[in-house]
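Worked problem 6 (solution included).
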Amino acid sequence: MRILLLFLFLVSCQLAFGQHDVSINAPQDGEEFFPGDVFVHISISSKYPISKLQFLLDAQDISAQFREVPKAVTALLRQPLIPGTHFLRVNLKTDSGLIILTESKFKVIRLKGADDPSKGLVKSDKKKFLGDVWALTGNVIAETRQTVLEGKGKDLRQEPSQTNFLFLNTALVHKHIRIPLKMTLSTDENTFQPNVQSRNFFQTGIQTKHLEVLVGDLNPSFDRLLFSGTRVRGIQGGISYPRFKATFLYGELNRALEGQKFTYNPSQGFVPPNLNSDSTYIMPGIYKRMVMALRVEMGNTVSKNAKTGITIMKAKDDTSSIRFGQNPKDNLGANLDHTRFFWKKRIRLGVGLSGTLITSNTFLGVERKSRIDSVLETNFPIEPRDVARLLVINASTTYLSEAVFAGYANLSLKVLRQDLFFEFMRIGSSYESLANPFMRNDQQQFLFTDRFDLFKRRIFVNLRYFNLRNNLAGTQLSTINNHSASTNITYSPGVGKPQIFTNLLFQSRLSTGNNLSITGNTDDRTLNLSVGASWNVNLQGIDNFLSVQYNMTQRNDWVRTGNDNSLNAWGVIFSQRYSFPLQLEINYNASRIDFVRLASNNNQSDSWLGMLGYENRKAKLTTSLGAGRNNMVMGDGVQDTKREQYFIRLAYKGIKGFQLDIEGGLSPFTNRKVADSQYSEKYFFTRLTYNLGGRNLASW
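Solution. The predicted structure is:
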């Protein structure tokens, strides 16, 4: 537990102060506009300086139209946008070589009876605007890493000696046609044990104004309850009009993984629960699971104030895909959702209702109607054999009741610079969608949030309350009732001035066990306070970044007082980067966690990283040397580890669009208490990046 808390704190510091965040706030993905000016707002926050920032509209560079504001860039696209689908893309590259790609797809709706806005262009401008040739946009990245581990503890690092990756995120664009090509190839596909999804990724297809067809690996997000982004390998097609949209999907949710058959020997110990009469038992594999779904949307929340969506989904295990498996499933579901705006779109109401039926074991076959009538003591309305292709019905099927439904209702209100949100969701105890396996059933939850700003957007306040309760059907061993309330306040006076934030969280978790689970009773209260400040300013050509964070957590268990504990942690990060050809960067981070009840069980760590670099702009070559060390002491010396790092980096940008990054290093790991866990790591890393940048194929 202590190791986990320390790890979470270090990660939170890294997330709070070390990430690059690029988001397209407007136009949002899928948003629709009438012909005219389109406003673009993109938020960009980065700890380290940005070496390149590029904006592409339909593969055309429009970077010159953007102006910078604090932590964001904006533009008003005044060029005529023809009706149809358009793509806005942001390419960001940092001095350290990190590349970030963000894309938003929006539509321009043709006004009834209006002329094509491109007709007013002169011939030469129209040719340039529409593009009479194909253009290729995106980037290609190829990288390889070789690792050599030496020492007694090298087996603690379960990783291959070499890994190779190839990434493609490209698109071929011509007028209103866009052909995407996305691919990830990795040697991890063959190095590690197969799982339900391939580690490789491939997607292509064609996208036009009204038609879209994609094949390969897809992440369709049809609705929140039934189908919300689970990966599928197959085909997806759709048609789209201003007030109507239909999408069809067919593919593979899980790939087949064969199981094994064993013979039991009494000397092996416990008897397997699935032991057969011939002393054999099966270690089941995974069936290939196919899914089919249809989504229809009517209405439009941009040109109109309402939109209704209907989703139908069927998923079924292919029992012929493997020899050794157990309990193949058959699943059928439907979803209805509706969104409506009121009061000049300041009020938004959303509701959704979904229902599923699932057969947990199709090996039982199709039940006879007479048998169902006898068990239910009623006249079953259908003949199971007549609907066997739609759903296999037998004793393992969940029958229609309140428990097979899930639903939500939410309301958002924007008034007086406040953004209020309320939502209630309830998931029945028998609700199960194989296309949304991460949703937990038999629970209900309520959420309230409020966001507002004060003093001309210098102070930002976030309020949040969340309640979760499970065991609605009363069939589980314990019932959990969880309450949490939090507030976050950020003071941001402006560019070059310190930013201060504070976060306060209170959580109450009450777990009540039934007669069969006496130990299921818990009643703990947790209070967490985080306070921090960060300052990013350029002084005399030197970029300075300083952040300080303090975290305090107090936990009281009113049932088992011996479990009470508290912790205190703090962290400091300081870095400097010179804007001259000679660059220096220093990072230092330290933390300490004290357990009050276990006063002799304290954890502390400190780490530093320094890097010295030289940029030869004429040769377009940057060379960097770095060194660092991380010390961690846990439990008053029970664990005392040290990890050092020494590396050299080369970055070459001599050819337009290409960048070559090479890094090699040595990293010894020492455990002062356990000598057998010591090892050293030598690595060599190479990455080749090519940014197409909307390149015209005719120029090749």
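Discussion: Confidence is low (pLDDT under 50) at residues 1-20, 111-132.
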